[in-house]
Amino acid sequence: MRAYAGVRPGDGPDKVYRGLRQAIIEQALSPGTRLPEDRVASQFGVSRTVVRTALERLGSEGLVDRINNRSARVAAIGLEAAEDLLAVRQGLEAMVVSRLTGRLTPEQIDRLQRHIAREELGSSLNQAEAVRLSGEFHVLLAELTGSVLLTRYVSDVVSRASLILTGHTLPHSSSCAVREHLALIELIAGGDAVAAQASMRAHLAQVAWRAQLLPAPKEEGPHRLP
């Protein structure tokens, strides 16, 4: 157990949750690592009640498995789940794209572009961080719809997918994702819902292929990503 970036003694469950979540997705805490409440509480300088709240939230996202009422462990998601995760993600994120197409404000576009700039920087530094930032781009898109429920579902499936992707994504994949995210913003802002949805599905299929989780995706005609 170690200290987590951005988490200080006395922080509440939200920051403990974010610190643990980042460590799990970036695999600073590997699948199967035990998370006893007392040790986590001591590390963060918080009560076990605070830790329990954070672990329950992580459990609802599929990132943590409860062992008993005093301990948990980092979840291990098998590769056999990859195809199901892709199908669920494609459906959810096509819905996100449908709601956003032609409706993004200049401020929202700027927010997305600034996030992609962080992705571009992260892709040159750390592969695990690049996976996390890429996932956060998709959650940000969901947040911009204004739907709490849709954001929660997208966040959950992105978290589960990130557990798999961090250990399998090839080194060049992050730069590809950055280009694809920029293309997605352009299509969404341009107002062509059909092209934007097709590109989102193609992008997610490419992500799975570059992680060597699924076969090469079929091209989708004029809407395929560059």
Brief description of this entry?
The chain is mainly alpha-helical. 63% of the residues lie in helices and 4% in strands.
| Anisotropy-based shape | globular
Number of discrete helical segments:
9
Biggest β-sheet: count, sense, barrel?
2 strands, antiparallel
Instruction: Report low-confidence residues grouped into runs of 5 or more.
Output: 1-7, 220-226
Number of strands: 2
User: Structural class, please?
Assistant: mainly alpha
Approximate strand percentage: under 5%
Helix and strand run:
HHHEEHHHHHH
* Rg for CA atoms: 18 Å
**Strand line-up of the largest beta sheet:** 1-2
Q: What's the CATH C level of the largest domain? A: Mainly Alpha
Mean pLDDT: 83
Percent of residues in helices comes to 55-70%
CATH topology term of the largest domain:
Four Helix Bundle (Hemerythrin (Met), subunit A)
